[in-house]
Design brief:
Elements (H helix, E strand, L loop, with lengths): L4 H17 L2 H15 L4 H9 L3 E5 L4 E5 L16 H7 L1
Antiparallel strand pairs: 1-2
Helix pairs in contact: 1-2
Length: 92
């Protein structure tokens, strides 16, 4: 029996930090650790480590599907408010 999905995602987040900054040899070692911990096939862990923290668009027969891998690194920027609450109440 393998690890639960939440545990696998937590391991991915931790290893991703090291993987992104590592050299080729370090990346290879991190990849081997991840494969042995999760029990994933050989190609899938390398894809996960490369795309962690990104929004990936996958296309299928049904249409496009957006997948978030790990946590998104960028935060959503909010536009500054143009009008204050008084003006909004008058409009409403």
């Amino acid at each position: 029996m393998g690890l639960e999905m939440k545990v696998k995602q937590a391991v991915l987040k931790e290893l991703d930090k090291r993987y992104q900054r590592g050299s080729w040899r370090e990346k290879s070692q991190i990849w081997k650790e991840f494969v042995s911990l999760t029990g994933y096939n050989r190609c899938y862990p390398s894809w996960l480590l490369r795309h962690c923290g990104r929004k990936v668009i996958l296309s299928a027969k049904d249409g496009q599907q957006v997948v978030f891998i790990g946590e998104l690194r960028k935060t959503k920027r909010r536009r500054p408010r143009v009008y204050d609450e008084e003006f909004r109440e008058v409009l409403i």
